[in-house]
Amino acid sequence: MKFVGERQLKATKAPPEKFSGNVWETSALEELRPGGLRALRFSYEPGARSCWHVHDGEQALYILSGRGVVTRWGETEGREVGPGDWVHVEPGEKHWHGAMADTTFEHLAVTATGATHWYEPVSDREYRAGHGAGTGSADQAGDAG
Questions:
Q1: By CB count within 10 A, which of 29, 55, 133, 142 is most buried?
Q2: From CA 85, how far away is CA 98, in angstroms rounded?
């Protein structure tokens, strides 16, 4: 068993090859064995977002503050999420997430097993289109995907 206190955590600037805009990541739980469970906290400035990516294992996102959008590959519109919302990402599901243009966004990401595979940046056009369904929280909109 391992305990991690908030005072032990350090935020670092997220790598620009994985994120567009200003994003900070804080590793809360590091893998105890290769490919094991890990948890990070991500903080996005308005308009910042991840690149498209895929996880080998399941991932849970828990929204702490602000408003964000999560979009799956092949969908023309994303889903707006806010504080208290959860998103369950299936293994192999290509997606991106980021802050709405007018607010910061912070979430926890808990990934069960395996690696994360990073792909191309989300274009400005894809980012704008991702907000098309952003009219309410995941709870109001139904299945958060």
A1: 55
A2: 14
Q: What is the pLDDT of residues 83-114, one digit of tens each?
A: 999 999 999 999 999 999 999 999 999 999 99
What tokens does 137 get?
Answer: 């929280």
How do 79-81 and 86-89 pair as beta strands?
unpaired
Q: Please measure the distance between the N-terminal and C-terminal CA atoms of the chain and give it in whole angstroms.
A: 31
Tell me if 113 sits within 8 A of 55, measured CB to CB: no
Q: How many helices (H) and strands (E) are present in the chain, helices listed first?
A: 2, 13
- Kindly report whether the global pTM for this prediction surpasses the value 0.90: no
Integer CA distances (angstroms), 83 to 38, 131, 132, 133, 138, in order = 21, 17, 20, 17, 10
* 125: phi then psi, degrees, rounded to nearest 5: -65, -45
The half-sphere exposure of 76 on its side-chain side, counting CA atoms within 13 A, is 1
**CA pair distance 40, 15, nearest whole angstrom:** 14
Q: What is the pLDDT of residues 32-76, one digit of tens each?
A: 888 889 999 999 999 999 999 999 999 999 999 999 999 999 998
Amino acid identity for residue 97 in this structure: H
Q: d(Cα 52, Cα 82) in Å, to the nearest integer?
A: 20
